[in-house]
Specification:
The complex is a heterodimer of chains A (484) and B (492).
Chain A: H1 9-31, H2 41-62, E1 68-72, E2 80-84, H3 86-107, H4 116-135, H5 139-158, H6 163-194, H7 201-209, H8 211-232, H9 240-247, H10 250-277, H11 283-304, H12 310-326, H13 334-361, H14 372-375, H15 377-391, H16 397-412, H17 416-441, H18 456-474, H19 477-481
Chain B: H1 2-18, H2 26-50, E1 53-59, E2 64-69, H3 74-90, H4 102-121, H5 125-134, H6 136-146, H7 152-184, H8 189-195, H9 203-218, H10 228-234, H11 237-262, H12 264-291, H13 295-316, H14 319-350, H15 362-365, H16 367-380, H17 387-400, H18 408-438, H19 454-472, H20 474-490
Antiparallel strand pairs in B: 1-2
Helix pairs in contact in B: 1-2, 1-4, 2-3, 2-4, 3-4, 3-11, 3-14, 4-5, 4-6, 4-11, 5-7, 6-7, 7-9, 7-10, 8-11, 9-11, 9-12, 10-11, 10-13, 11-13, 11-14, 12-13, 12-18, 13-14, 13-17, 13-18, 14-16, 14-17, 14-19, 14-20, 16-18, 16-19, 17-18, 17-19
Classes of the chains: A mainly alpha (484), B mainly alpha (492).
């Protein structure tokens, strides 16, 4: 017995990078307190995240498209605690880059963040969890990673120090605790049903054949979806979202809207891919996933139509888009899983760009964006493209393509209610985003006022995010091909 | 390869005008746009002559290929679109509406043209849908930003209604396409048309229903037409021309390409309903035109009536019917473009085109405009020898003798009622001619309506020649579409 488990640090690098980053930032802060007010910590953390993202993105290339495994138990059991197929790697890359974008926006925030080291530590810790949960296949690591991804986010919201921020953090904290309790319960039920401490297709398939264990498995799925519903902002577990987005600083809001959603979706894909692998379908799992999906699509889209504060509009748009992430999963197949991952990646990119544009303009109402395309072509153009992608209208072709992909599995499976609500959500969603889009293009008000500062790192996020959206709009295969 | 250039040229020029050259002055902007449009027309002719096609993987995950090409059904529409593109770019010398930079306006025109060309050449169902959506945002911009400046609220409302109605239609169509692709296992339109709906099983009717309803919004078929009149009334002249001559054609082209070719049995079941809807549209449009005061809105309602003839012809399922539909499609493109340029010009001169306002007779103040208006109205009412005649006459004949599997009673009734609708068209055309052309005696004090000059005369002249040519030599167009139509109907 030479080694209990095999460890491949290169495979683990996407999660190791932010974890090592936490240690480095804490060490640096201990050795050089007050140096530059701790502002060095944010760029350092962003650099670490980019390294992690490169490791995650190149993983499938190194493995030639095969699944990366490590932390494997010795034979005969041979289960691996870290299993990253190309889809997982793509989601991990997304989480890491979204977190780096959040740091960049936070770095430019006004007033200048004084607690750079704390922010960087919290954000890196949350990112570690978000990356690890995507590759976790056993219940224990999955739960721990998911919690690691959530708790620091609460502190990030609270860090702003204002009273509304504290309220928002409190509601987020309560929500996360309830969600954690549900997830633990769900994991326990899964273990009861399958007798397996991992999300595996074979044991889930066996449990499905026994009517009694099947009931427990369905219950486990209900509770797991409810627990993840909090993190994904699915109706009826969405109430914290508008509050947190509107009262946290924009960097944190970006993290919650992009990185957090990516890791939550990655976490959801773990049990669903176990079901899909066992070809478990039928009314029960479909209903469990379709009910929150349809409720989110309906409520999120309609309420977003009435918002005047851009952050709140994006919050309700998140609710609606979370519904879209679930739509392809209502018919759990390999295509559905890929469509869901593609959707959440595109959503996260577009939302990152939108929040970065919001941070650059500092607008507190939609009217503040009047004529933005003319006044600030970079922010205005990037925001316009992001909104078109979210709406699914060319020239934001990639947004349209992922909507097509998302609707294909339920239509192929003949789930007409899902298709019907999808059609309505597309149309009302157009109204939501075009309302904002129209303001961007309207004639600019004549104001000779001082031009606001144009922070550099947010501009980098805008340029890179827009480039990704434009490139994948021309060649959607670049995105979809990376999902295996 | 040429077909890729055909799509890339207007798209690239349009995007450049929208982004990089947004601040360009009106002179260089319209020269650029016209050059791009003329280049597109040359490429379109080259594509048709060389029968160019492109086919490469685009979205292997969905089995979608980047596949464009032309056949008999699409050739007339590709040429029509490219020609109309040149005319609307040339029309920028007559009028560039206020509301934003001229470069943005012209960029939107080129993007609509690019989207329409992609729609007419797409050989893949999902690609067709994506191309179909491309025109939405630029057209929305044209209406909401450059539309009639008198009533901003009405402008916003018209633009929103246009986007939301057509988005409902195209999303319903998308569901139909996805169901079709899932059941048939391919999204290649050529293969789908060859299969003629075999392999769809029980889903054939659902596919046909979704596709027909989705596309009917764009055509538009009564009662889904209510977005069209406000859009036409508010859109700038060039936007109206594109809307009537290009965008509506995407709907009818889609009906021919998708449901009629791919699920003939489902369409046969739906045909009576479609025929009745078309006939009601003919009568409804005609009746509204008898009382409508706004001349632009009147022309829009006459479009509803003309598209009713096209839909009726499509529903008959016979070779004649399909020919009539395609002919009526192109003819309506030319006639409505002529009328919209004319009416837009009158609106520019008079400030409004309210028929209740007494104005000096056009035939005396500006005889050239007056003559062209008469020509347009005559073509619109279906006078023999002009473009409108063949489409309507063939549609009526096809409805009288529908395909064997269609209920003859319904179609004969529809044919009779449609003939009544054609008479209504004569009535409203004469009404307009009486008010605008014959008009009141010119008041020597009143300002004279300036006649057409310069570029406007060229634009109108080309359209008038097209209207006459289509009417005098229908066989040129009918033989072009003949083979493709026989292929679509043939195996039935």
């Amino acid at each position: 017995m030479s080694a209990l488990v095999t460890v491949d640090p290169l495979v683990l690098a996407p999660a190791l990078a932010p974890a090592v980053g936490v240690v480095l930032v804490l060490l640096g802060d201990a050795l050089l307190p007050r140096r530059g007010g701790g502002r060095w910590a944010l760029p350092a953390a962003a650099a670490v995240l980019v390294v992690g993202a490169v490791a995650a993105a190149t993983g499938p290339l190194r493995a030639g498209g095969a699944t990366l495994r490590t932390l494997c138990l010795p034979a005969p059991d041979g289960a691996c605690l870290w299993t990253a197929d190309p889809r997982t790697s793509a989601l991990q890359t997304g989480v890491l880059l979204a977190a780096a974008a959040a740091l960049a926006v936070r770095h430019d925030g006004r007033p200048r963040p004084r607690d750079g080291a704390v922010t960087a530590t919290l954000l890196l810790a949350a990112t570690t969890g978000g990356v690890a949960v995507a590759a976790a296949r056993d219940l224990g690591s999955w739960l721990v990673a998911l919690e690691l991804a959530t708790v620091p986010a609460v502190a990030l919201v609270a860090l702003r120090g204002t009273r509304p921020a504290a309220h928002a953090a409190l509601s987020l904290l309560v929500t996360s605790l309830v969600s954690f309790a549900l997830l633990v319960l769900g994991a326990a039920l899964w273990l009861t049903a399958t007798g397996d401490a991992a999300f595996a297709s074979d044991t889930a398939g066996l449990a499905w054949t026994d009517p009694q264990r099947r009931a427990v498995l369905v219950l486990a799925l209900v509770v797991l979806v409810a627990g993840l519903g909090f993190k994904l902002s699915l109706v009826p577990f969405h109430a914290w979202t508008p509050q947190a987005y509107a009262h946290a600083d924009l960097g944190t809001a970006l993290f919650l809207a992009a990185a957090s959603k990516l890791s939550a979706a990655a976490a959801l894909l773990v049990p669903v891919s176990a079901l899909a692998g066992a070809q478990i379908g039928g009314l029960a799992p479909t209903a469990v996933l379709a009910a929150p999906a349809l409720a989110s699509l309906g409520l999120g889209t309609v309420v977003a139509l009435r918002q005047r504060d851009p952050a709140r509009l994006l919050a309700w748009s998140t609710v609606a888009q979370a519904g879209w992430v679930l739509v392809p999963l209502t018919a759990p197949t390999a295509e559905g899983l890929r469509a869901s991952a593609a959707y959440v990646l595109v959503y996260a990119t577009a939302t990152t760009v939108a929040f970065a544009a919001l941070a650059r303009t500092g607008a507190r109402s939609l009217e503040d964006h009047r004529g933005l395309v003319r006044r600030d072509p970079l922010a205005g153009g990037a925001l316009a493209l992001a909104l078109l992608v979210l709406a699914g209208l060319p020239p934001g072709v990639v947004g349209l393509v992922v909507k097509v992909l998302a609707l294909a599995p339920p239509v192929a499976a003949g789930l007409w209610p899902v298709a019907l609500v999808g059609v309505l959500a597309v149309v009302v969603g157009l109204a939501v985003y075009l309302r904002w889009f129209a303001v961007l293009l309207a004639p600019a008000p004549d104001e000779g006022g001082a031009r606001p500062a144009r922070p550099r790192s947010t501009a980098v996020v805008l340029v890179l995010g827009t480039a990704v959206l434009a490139l994948t709009s021309a060649l959607p295969h670049l995105l979809l091909g990376s999902l295996g | 390869m040429v077909v890729s250039l055909l799509l890339a040229l207007p798209a690239a020029a349009g995007l450049w005008l929208l982004t990089g050259a947004r601040g360009l002055d009106v002179r260089p902007a319209r020269r650029t746009a016209l050059a791009a449009a003329v280049g597109t027309l040359v490429l379109a002719v080259a594509v048709v002559v060389a029968d160019s096609a492109v086919d490469r993987p685009w979205l292997p995950e969905l089995g979608v290929r980047w596949s464009f090409g032309v056949d008999g059904v699409s050739v007339p529409l590709v040429l029509l679109t490219a020609a109309v593109g040149v005319l609307v770019a040339g029309h920028a010398w007559v009028e560039v509406p206020a509301g934003g930079s001229p470069a943005t306006f012209l960029g939107c025109l080129l993007l609509v043209e690019a989207g329409a060309l992609a729609t007419f050449t797409a050989r893949d169902a999902v690609l067709f849908f994506v191309a179909f959506e491309v025109v939405l945002v630029p057209m929305w911009l044209l209406i909401s930003r450059y539309g009639d400046g008198h009533d901003p609220r009405a402008r916003t409302g018209a633009a929103q209604r246009f986007v939301l109605y057509t988005a409902v239609g195209s999303t319903v169509m998308l569901v139909g396409i996805l169901l079709l692709v899932a059941r048939a296992g391919t999204s290649d339109l050529v293969a789908l048309a060859a299969a003629r709906g075999s392999g769809l099983g029980g889903a054939g009717f659902a596919v046909a229903l979704l596709l027909v309803v989705g596309l009917a919004v764009k055509v538009p078929v009564f009662p889904l037409h209510t977005w069209l009149p406000p859009a036409h009334t508010t859109a700038p002249t060039a936007g109206s021309v594109l809307l009537a001559a290009v965008l509506l054609k995407m709907g009818t082209y889609g009906l021919v390409r998708l449901p009629v070719s791919v699920t003939p049995d489902g369409v046969a079941t739906l045909a009576p309903a479609l025929a009745v809807a078309g006939t009601v549209g003919i009568l409804w449009g005609g009746l509204v035109c008898l009382v409508e005061r706004d001349l632009k809105r009147l022309v829009a309602y006459s479009s509803v009536a003309h598209m009713g003839f096209v839909v009726l012809a499509l529903a008959t399922g016979s070779e004649t019917g399909l020919q009539a539909a395609l002919y009526g499609n192109v003819a309506h493109g030319a006639v409505s473009a002529l009328l919209f340029v004319l009416v837009g010009g009158l609106k520019q001169r008079w400030g409004s085109v309210d028929l209740a306002v007494r104005r000096p007779a056009l035939r005396e103040t500006s005889p050239r405009l007056g003559f062209l208006l008469l020509l347009g109205l005559a073509a619109s009412l279906g006078l023999p020898g002009l473009a409108g005649f063949w489409g309507e006459w063939l549609a009526l004949y096809a409805a009288w003798v529908p395909a064997g599997d269609r209920p003859r009673v319904v179609f004969v009734t529809c044919a009779v009622l449609a003939a009544v609708g054609a008479a209504l068209a004569a009535a409203y055309a004469l009404r307009v001619a009486g008010i605008v052309w014959a008009g009141d005696r010119p008041d020597p004090e009143a300002a004279r309506t300036p006649d057409t000059t310069g570029p406007e005369r060229w634009v109108l002249g080309v359209l008038a020649v097209a209207v006459v040519a289509l009417g005098v030599a229908p066989m040129v167009l009918l033989t072009t579409t003949g083979d493709a139509v026989a292929r679509i109907v043939g195996a039935r």
